[in-house]
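Subject: complex prediction, re-run

Hi both,

The earlier run crashed halfway through, so I resubmitted it with identical inputs.
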Amino acid sequence: MELTEKQHSQKRVFKITGRLDSNSSPKFETKILEVIQTSPMNIILDFKDLDYISSAGLRVVLKAAKRLEATGRKLSICGMEEYVREVFEIAGFDTFIDIIPTLKEALESR
Amino acid sequence: MTHAKLSLSLKNELAELDQLSASLKEFGATIGLPPKILFNVNLALEELICNIITHGYPENGSHQIELSIEYRDHTLTIFLEDDGIPFNPLHARCANRTCILKKRQIGGLGVQIARSMMDDIGYQRCGTKNRLILKKFITP
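This time it finished cleanly. Structure:
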């Protein structure tokens, strides 16, 4: 799993490449929670090159979404591949996270 | 290929999940498994094995989890066996999908995902072992 983080138009964008599973999710958790703590911005997760996610990855997404909501901020996810999207729907996570087709649209949204 | 089998013995350590993925990918390539099925099976097994590793051995220790996958007649039949404490994931409470964000918990999600990914899951307690039998039908 590779993780890169950039700032684009007043938002922090995390791009995750590869797999978010039980082994790789802890690293993602540490990084995203640190950024949520230190930066006041909304966060976008770019899942365009994410091939796989398990409940370990969903756990981190949930934690991040809760922490952001507590400070009036938003989590959006863009570029979700079909199988990953299905997992989010099974988990019911599509009800509280903005799932947006492309990074461009995610950056343009409020 | 119309018939193939994979057998794996995994230690009760999360790091073994990488071995699981690699072996499944190789097996999938051998039998020409559609990518979506490979994804579903990998995810279901990760969730179930993760539960076994995390909750099955309150006294810790080193244990083996036995996995066998048979492909025949467009069906994958999977046996997953462990010697942990009795646990039937089919009786586990499912996560509340409709709860608002603030109240959402992650508990039960792994089992819920595993059940959604497979076409059939059965459980048996055989002596000191938990045994799960999973099936996935592959439409040609």
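The radius of gyration of chain A is 12 Å.

- K.
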